[in-house]
C-alpha cells in the first residue's frame, strides 16, 4: 500500500526562499514544507554580508540599484525581473520587519547600511554585524512555527516530481522511516537552493546538491544559465581543507579591506583601477586567480589591520572569532583567502511570478533562474531575490486558491532497489572534476574531458534506481554538474563568471 499525503501547496526547502514563501501563503491553505535535512542547515543561515535594498522609496536610488545589478551581471540580466527585484525590495523588507526580523540599527533608530562590491552606495542591511542570514532565519523560523496551516517535515527528501501532461501533481518523498510517500498538491514550489556540494570547496554546506534543479530536469523542465557559477573571492584559506569553507564577507572589503598577494603587494589596481577591491565578484575572483597563478601560490591576503580591534569585534563578530580560533588575529594579521564556489546565478527558468515551464510548478531562490543576476550576481542581491520572488510566488498561489481541489493521479509504479551504497567515490570524483575543469578558468578541451567523465557516472547511476538519499543526492550532483559543463561548452565567449581561456 502506497502512503499518500495531500496538501494545497507543497514547498521543498527550508531556507529563506522556502520559509518566506510559506509565510506569505494564505493561512486558509494547507502547506507542507519538506526539508531534506535539519531546518537550521542550509545556505541562508550562512549569509554574512546582508541584504541589498533601498528601503525608503526614492526613484533615483532605486534606479541606481537597478543599474548596479545590470552592470554586475554584464547586462545579461532579465530587465523586467531586475526592475521587480529592486522596486519591491522596500515592501518586502517591511514584511521581514513585521515577521520579527531585527536588522542592526543606529543609535537614532535608523537602519545601519554597509557597502559591498559593485554597489555605488551603502544600501546593504545587516543583522548581528556579520550574522545576517542566521539572525533572519532564526526570527522567521519562530514565525513559521506559530503557523497552524504549515506542517514542517525535516529529514524528508523529495526525489521525483509527479507530473502528467506538463502539469505537476506532487512529489515522491523518502520519509524519516525510509519509506516512500506520495505527496500530492495543487501547487508545488521548488526552493531547494544551490549546488556548492559539487565542488571541493564552497561556502555552502555539502548538502547543497542541486536537488530541485536535477529533479526538474528529469521532469523535462527548462534549466538555463548554469554556466554562471559564482566564486566568492574571499573564502577563508586553510591548507588542504575540503568541504564547507568559512566565508570572509565582502563587507570586509566594503569597510576598507585591501587585497594583497603572497608578497604583501596590493594588486587590484592592475585589474580594475577604478573600483579596486570593490569591483564585482567575477572581476575580483578572476583577478585573485591570476595573481595566485603569477605568484605560484594558492591564496592571497585580505588586510583589514588598519581598523581597530574594538571596531572589528563589534562590526564582524563572527569573522573575528572564527579567524582568532584559527590563529589569525584580524586586527594584526592579514587574513589568508582564496576564491571558492559560492552561488549559482542560473537554474530553473522562471518568469516574474516564479512559474517554471511546467504548469503548477514554481521555483524560487537560488535554484531558480529569474534572470536577475545575469552573468554574475551583485553582492547581497540573493537574499533579496528570495523575499521579492517568494512573495510573488505566494501571491500568485493565493490568487488561484479557488481552483484547488483533490488531485487525481495514477501513481507510477517506481521500482526501487534497497541497497546501502553510499557512492562516495563518485561524489569525490564529481567534486574533483568540477574543481579542476568547471572552476574560474575554463577551456574547451577541459570541458570536453569533464563531460566525458561525468557522463560515464551519469549513465551508470541511471542504470540503477536505489531508494536512498545517498543515491538521489549523487544522481542530482552528477546531473547538475553535467548541465553546467554542457552549458559552459555552449557559451564560447567570456562573460561574467564564465571565463573562457580559449
Ligand atoms: C558576503 O557576505 O560576502 C556574501 C554576501 C552575498 O553572497 O551576497
How would you characterize the overall build of this protein?
The protein has 502 residues and is of the alpha/beta class. The protein is built from 14 helices and 21 strands. Helix 2 packs across helix 3, helix 9 crosses helix 10 and helix 12 runs parallel beside helix 14. The longest helix has 22 residues. It is globular, with a radius of gyration of 22 Å. Succinic acid binds next to helix 7.
Our estimate of the beta-strand percent is 15-25%
Largest sheet: 7 strands, mixed
Segments where pLDDT lies below 50 for 5+ residues?
Answer: none
Distance between the termini: 56 Å
CATH C-level label of the largest domain: Alpha Beta
Query: Which architecture name of the largest domain does CATH use?
Result: 3-Layer(bba) Sandwich
Number of strands: 21
Number of domains: 3
Query: CATH superfamily name of the largest domain?
Result: FAD/NAD(P)-binding domain
Do you know the CATH topology of the largest domain?
FAD/NAD(P)-binding domain
The structure class reads alpha/beta
On the 0-100 scale, what is the average pLDDT? 97
Specify the number of helices. Answer: 14
- Helix fraction by DSSP (H/I, runs of at least 4): 25-40%
